[in-house]
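Notebook, bench 3.
Goal today: get a predicted structure for UDP-glucose 6-dehydrogenase from Grifola frondosa so we can plan the truncation constructs. The sequence was checked against the plasmid map this morning, with no discrepancies at the termini. Length recorded as 416 residues. Pasting the sequence as submitted so the record is complete.
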Amino acid sequence: MAPVKVSKICCIGAGYVGGPTCAVIALKCPHITVTIVDLNQARIDAWNSPDFNVPIYEPGLVDVIRQARGRNLFFSTDVDKAVREADLIFVSVNTPTKKSGVGAGFGADLHYVESATRRIAAVATSNKIVVEKSTVPCRTAESMRTILEANSKPGIRFDILSNPEFLAEGTAISDLFAPDRVLIGSLQTSEGKDACKALADVYANWVPKERILTRISSVNALSAICEATGANIDEVAHAVGFDSRIGPKFLRASVGFGGSCFQKDILNLVVEMNEYQKSRFSKTVVDTLFNTITGKHIAVLGFAFKADTGDTRESAAISIIRDFLSEHLQEACPNTPLESIKKSVTIVHSALEACKQKEAIVIATEWKEFQSIDWELVYGQMAKPAFVFDGRMILDAEKLRKIGFTVKVIGRGDRV
């Protein structure tokens, strides 16, 4: 069978991965019709907004949408129509961490992936290449294959590919324009290789061919997992080494590292230290503000989890605000929903406005714009004494102190 020449792509999921990824594919491949679908009408309306007020903040994204939308890039809630017409389907739905049951707190909730896969099987009327694009555990593509094959109509074949994303929010568009590498995994059958080539040909419209790596069974760097899943550890190490954030060093599989401390440090630090750091910062704020924040007003600058993104998932600011609300209510509220937090705080879009008549400023996100704030003007409109708690070590503490601020920088052992 000759490789499929892709002329129509459907992406199920108009979120942080599917939206930018397929928008760039549409921009770079004007001969391919790309339709991004989602059941959330409000989200699709935002992607289609006349003023390009798209639902995701990502530098460069609006310019991509302006060039491609209406030409060969479309956003729709008609999932069935897009699936039926597509040659290739990206499944790029949300895979949140499980909140209850087995694996709660660390396992991925794959019910959106399963739902999308079952929808494809139910409505497809021709052969499809289905690409797993969400952040999912190993073997998810195999589970998708099982669902599709068990529910497909006679005479219809599904080829399943794994095409993991390696975008960093805030630089997603530049990452997509010039990726370190593109990974495409498939079964090592002639049909699987043909499907691999079809997707590789899409990326080859702008990605150098030497950076498109195919026929990789898994992207786990642990040899034990590679053995269990049939992956080649050397291929995996080679592929991982292409990522400029990692590099090719320390990727040789071995019997494992020795010593009693290293493994304990890793296991303890991965989660516990991260949570401890946030709670320690909150406690520092409260302790410094004379051991109470009751009746005080605090400006938290930065609600997203990092600069140049609108994504608030697992944001440190949310944990900090929860701690502040707990202090104010004099009871613990570690599970306060995000919507409840938003109702408990005033959200503004100007640092100057946020700091007006506040006793303290908390820096929770490393926005470059902080460097251009007129801190003397901010100081002048704050209650005194005026405190700054820099949780990202991005401000000139000495300059702020000269203005009159009391400054506490996390990680530097500052005395106030």
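Residues 305 and 315 are 4 Å apart (CA to CA). The chain has 16 helices and twelve strands.
Flagging this for group meeting.
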